[in-house]
Amino acid sequence: MKNKTIKTKQDFYWHFVDTYIDLISHIHCIGEDEIFRDKLCDLKNYINEKLQLASDGEIIETYVTVLQQSDE
């Protein structure tokens, strides 16, 4: 059987925010504030929805593509 490759376009900034929230969640005092922790969890769930992929297949490669208009 031949494998099919699915390309999904996602905004790079959502990945940045996802990583940033992961870093914030590792700050000890954050875990002690239940309200903040719950709100952070809600935000994390929202971002996970934004980054949801079309398939559960293995991710084989990730990269950044920069699109630029020419000056000409």
Shape, per Cα inertia axes:
flat
Question: Could you give the distance between the termini?
Answer: 46 Å
Q: How is the biggest beta sheet arranged?
A: none
Mean pLDDT: 90
- Number of DSSP strands? 0
Low-confidence stretches: none
Helix content bin: 40-55%
Number of helices: 3
**Beta content:** under 5%
Q: What is the SS-derived class?
A: mainly alpha
Order of helices and strands: HHH
Radius of gyration: 17 Å
In short:
The protein is an all-alpha fold and 72 residues long.
Outline the secondary-structure elements.
Layout: H1 12-25, H2 28-32, H3 34-50
Helix pairs in contact: 1-3
List its traits.
flat; mainly alpha; 50% helix; 72 residues
How would you describe this protein?
By secondary structure, the chain is an all-alpha fold. It has helices spanning about 10-25, 30, 35-50. About 50% of the residues lie in helices and about 0% in strands. Helix 1 runs antiparallel to helix 3.
